[in-house]
Amino acid sequence: MTDVLSAPLVVEFPFTRSLGPVQSAFLTGLREQTVLGVRTAAGKVLVPPVEYDPETSAELSELAEVGATGTVTTWAWNHEPRRGQPLDTPFAWVLVRLDGADTALLHALDVPGPDAVHTGMRVRIRWAAERAGAITDIACFEPAADDGAPLAAATPHSGAFEDPLTGVTLPARLDYTYTPGRATTSYLNGLKERRLIGERCPVCEKVYIPPRGACPTDGVATAEKVEVGPSGTVTTYAIVNIKAKNLDVEVPYVYAHVAMDGAGLPLHGRIGGIPYDQVRMGMRVEPVWKDGNDYPDHYRPTGEPDADYDMYKEQL
Amino acid sequence: MPSYARDVAVVAFAQSDHKRHTDEQSEVEMLMPVLHQVLAATGLKTGDIDFTCSGSSDYLAGRAFSFTMALDGVGAWPPISESHVEMDGAWALYEAWVKIQTGEADTALVYSYGKSSPGSVRDVLTRQLDPYYVAPLWPDAPALAALQAQALIDAGEADEKALAGVASRSRAAAAGNPHAQLRGERPQGDYAVQPLRTGDLPPVTDGAAAVILAADDTARRLCERPAWIRGIDHRIEAHSLGVRDLTDSPSTRQAAERAGAFERPVDTAELHAPFSSQELVLRKALGLDDSVSVNPSGGALAANPIMAAGLIRIGEVAARIHRGESARALAHATSGPCLQQNLVAVLEGQEGEASR
Predict the structure, then answer these.
(1) Which one of B138, B144, B238 has the shortest CB-CB distance to A83?
(2) Which residues form the ChsH2 rubredoxin-like zinc ribbon domain (chain A) (predicted)?
């Protein structure tokens, strides 16, 4: 067992989402320091508002403004804030029922420690200095005085604001330490030595390259390593006329499937060292490695006679 | 008991040894031995299986289309009849069960796997939350479970001692489960997110599981003592956390009702409760008393391969029925924050009406 390769992998995926009328009013309202809920037929005010009644599935549209103060309905103490969370100092997660609302909103509460938070505690919104129309326009909650006064009821609101939001872009990022597993590690280690190493299925004897660890026909592990090449055959190709971003290759060029000798399925790569309009099926080629790259830069003709169609038709 | 067109049974179950890391294996490499084991238990080959259904999520390991590569381990070429859900394998089992009920299949292979080690599962799971109101705050699963636990404490339905009791019993039970990751009791540790301590949280796990379903005479042929699915149903809560009563699980209760769970007592229940506090919610919703053996495998607190931990609950009770250790058992699977979605299956050693 050779050492398993690993590498950092960052996946970033900003979602651009459109907003319906209810979400648009709520998020635009946050930008304007106004918290809106939506009233159901039964008279409940849902904050944050949803577009369909969770109990009856009726479409909801009757907006109502609720208070910026509210009551903690449950809490949890987060002593180690994580990336992206509302505060970078220890804080309490809270569900807060804002005055006038019948449901609770999730957010952070800025208090010095777990002894400073309890269910039933009165809190108020601390607005972010810069607001764009997002749940993070509420920076967090902070403690509010409990004066025992009756809670204000929700008041009707048109939901109309100047320059309403119609969509939001929500960034996300996840970090991984990627390990490719046994078969791919073996393949990548071979590439470092400029060798193309596949794996043979013990049942059907097909040689898979790159190996992924299993034969999709027989559902068994491929274990026997098989070096393929050093030459191969163009099985099919396409002429590329559109220049790809960040690719320092003049168009037109040929991108081809290349069945390396001894391999059961083709690799793919660019064909160089020959004018694009002279590339043909059956042409014999070999990989060209460049210093600094641990994969074939391209494939070039070997000058051997073309392979007979019957020799590679199974790999088309 | 609910009435179905066909009697369908779990005839085989296999699972991996669950681990914190499986760096040396890709997902298909981790899964394949489990597939071979479950097929070997029935003597079936891939080609004998009428329908294959899997559950997994590419977000866990950050590998796009990993489920298509996992299919290589089944031997899916030439193309087989198959489907995939981005859900726990328990829901893949549900789809396969429906497929068999339609008469389109007599046998089904169901598998699922989760490789959480490459990423940070606490961050990954935030991405399943409401993208407008909740996900931008990045609340991790332990934080949301802790809100639920505090709600239970406020309601007088739990205290830290009760939570610790669930954690310690689960891991003590797992001492007898060779596949479990945390075998034997361990200290509750410091607060992870108060009121939950590290001991109240599930381990981060890589693992896989597989089940074979079969109908009627096929089941009887493949298994000496099939675990007949006498009822199965799944239900979901409203998606907004602040709308729900976090101390209860009406969706679990409703699924259990529709699966016939309350018609007669069960002797065993495998509950998919990744956090200790959630077992208390589920016990209440399902009306389980001390006469029921709950999570004799150790449950998700002892091994939590996300996307497979629910399917394993069904597999564990089926295996007990296969071994003659249970006559009637309940299996529960969950998905989403704070027991958002719940599936309940009732399995028995005795056959249903359709056979008699």
Answers:
(1) B138
(2) 189-220
